[in-house]
Write a structure and sequence with these properties.
heterotrimer; A mainly alpha (about 200); B alpha+beta (about 160); C alpha+beta (about 160); B: about 160 residues; alpha+beta; 6 helices; 3 strands; flat; C: about 160 residues; 5-stranded antiparallel β-sheet; 4-stranded antiparallel β-sheet; 3 helices; 9 strands
Chain lengths: ~200, ~160, ~160
């Protein structure tokens, strides 16, 4: 890629090809384009601004190092997102944040907590502006443990199947299912409760 | 409804149940109001979450963020370029390589019991197998490196 | 790279010195076979400080570098296995990885890999190939670390090691 190329107008595919040949300017454009998404994914998992910035930067550096391995089997941003997810999971494991405490784990496995939660019958999104709903969801996510939030992020936001979530989190499919169930029910309760608070 | 049934309900919602089980769960949702209510809650929650992840902006300027990434890349590349080959490697090239060649010749001359034969007939045969359905594998042999590889991966 | 000339007598002597261990190993053909099993971690990351890893033998590392894509290879563990003709030997390479070795017949060695207790794969190789220095490699993606890989390499142990 020559310096005359309009990087801002180039497609991701062109920029990736240029980056694979060592064009740092092409790679910079990819970073500019997708930095928010990568940062947002890191933040959703780490819930800490500084950590999310560091991990997203580390993901970009790893992406540069592994560019030759990128064959276009998925989109570039999907490929990069997988890298940042794995870095976040490594970090969470390193600091033992993916372990649930024993009581919570027993509840997960037996379904004890969920039995006490009444089924939510209202749609929490009704009557809310989208931006407000998103903010509420984000605040509710913050109240989950790392383990429950990670399962939700990987399954609901990244669209990974149970098996893939289990592989990445290093746990059984049964644990994934239980955690997802608990997380969803808790979110339903939290969102319904928040909606109730809004009523005059 | 026990916890296992609740998880099957969820798995049906997520499209993770085999078709036979999926039909059973569908029938349960049809006839059992409690199952239907729970399924409805899970369905709505799933829908609300999927479409409404909060978008976030990186809390750093383009220049600052990129400059740190670029610096790390340059540092790594400089570190890789600066690593010299170990001394033993140079020594091996000087002394070991000629000796190794002569060793091979010496073996052929001094060990009449050895029937080396053509390498391909001795070394190319390798049987591989994997008994698990969820494991796929492939095998290859590198003639140059004298290596047979069985690569297993989880499907 | 500089070259260095050695006199012919020195080279011939070196050749014989290097030949004897090899012949000694071949003499073990009728009895036990001494194998070396190595568990290796392939990664693009630098060697972590907090892990008990050894640097890999140069020759094997070079082979791996030429065949596979990772930048670094670290030895997680190594075991020597004395394999008699009529026995099966099971070796634990790590808490999640075991291998089972046996002679299928006089000319064939079988390597079975067990991951977390489950039989994952089998590789059979001719005894002659192994004695000639062929490496038998069973490998796969590291499911705990994205992008990394593990390798179990079975090779002939050096003759002096079999005396241990």
């Amino acid at each position: 890629m020559s310096k005359k190329i309009d990087y801002a107008s180039a497609s991701d595919e062109m920029l990736v090809r240029g980056s694979q040949k060592g064009d740092m300017l092409a790679f910079e454009e990819l970073v500019v384009r997708h930095r928010d998404k990568l940062y947002a994914r890191a933040f959703s998992m780490m819930r800490n601004e500084d950590e999310a910035v560091d991990l997203s930067q580390e993901a970009w550096v790893k992406g540069w190092q592994r560019l030759k391995q990128f064959q276009g089997e998925a989109s570039f941003v999907t490929w990069m997102t997988r890298i940042v997810i794995n870095l976040c999971l490594d970090q969470l494991r390193k600091h033992k944040r993916l372990r649930t405490d024993s009581i919570e784990q027993m509840d997960d496995e037996s379904g004890g907590v969920e039995r006490q939660m009444p089924v939510v019958t209202i749609n929490p999104s009704e009557g809310l502006e989208r931006s407000e709903l998103r903010a509420r969801i984000d605040r509710a996510l913050k109240q989950l443990t790392y383990a429950h939030r990670t399962v939700l992020v990987l399954h609901e936001f990244e669209g990974l199947e149970y098996k893939e979530v289990a592989k990445r989190m290093g746990c059984s499919i049964g644990t994934v299912m239980s955690r997802l169930f608990y997380a969803r029910r808790r979110m339903a309760g939290l969102l319904a409760g928040l909606k109730e608070e809004l009523k005059p | 409804m026990n916890h296992e049934t609740e998880l099957r309900l969820q798995a049906w919602l997520d499209g993770e149940l085999p078709s036979v089980e999926a039909r059973e769960v569908a029938a349960l949702v049809e006839r059992d109001p409690a199952a239907r209510a729970l399924w409805e809650e899970l369905r709505i929650t799933k829908g609300v979450l999927k479409a409404n992840e909060l978008e976030r902006e990186l809390p750093a300027t383009r220049e600052f963020y990129w400059s740190q990434i670029e610096r790390q890349i340059r540092q790594l590349e400089a570190a890789e370029a600066a690593v010299p080959p170990p001394r033993w490697f140079s020594a091996w090239l000087k002394y070991g390589a000629p000796a190794a060649i002569l060793t091979a010749l010496a073996v052929m001359v001094t060990a009449p019991n050895l029937r080396l034969g053509a390498p391909a007939s001795v070394t190319s045969h390798a049987e591989v197998d994997s008994p698990l359905d969820d494991i796929s594998f492939f095998t290859f042999r590198s003639e140059a490196e004298g290596m047979t590889v069985l690569w297993v991966s989880n499907q | 790279m500089t070259t260095h000339k050695l006199s012919w007598p020195v080279l011939v002597c070196l050749s014989f010195l290097l030949t004897f261990p090899f012949l000694g190993t071949l003499k073990a053909q009728g009895g036990e076979l001494t194998l070396k099993a190595q568990l290796i971690w392939g990664t693009d990351d630098a060697k972590p400080k907090d892990k008990d890893l050894k640097d890999l033998d140069g020759k094997i590392k070079e082979k791996l570098c030429r065949v596979f894509k990772w930048k670094n290879y670290f030895q997680v563990g190594e075991k020597k296995v004395e394999l008699p003709r009529k026995e099966t030997k099971r070796v634990r390479m790590s808490p999640k990885c075991e291998i089972e070795l046996r002679f299928v017949d006089d000319a064939t060695v079988e390597i079975k890999l067990f991951g977390e207790g489950k039989h994952t794969g089998t590789l059979r190789k001719s005894l002659k190939a192994i004695e000639q220095g062929e490496l038998c490699v069973v490998a796969g993606d590291d499911k705990d670390r994205y992008g990394d890989a593990w390798f179990v390499i079975i090779s002939l142990a050096k003759a002096e090691a079999s005396q241990h």
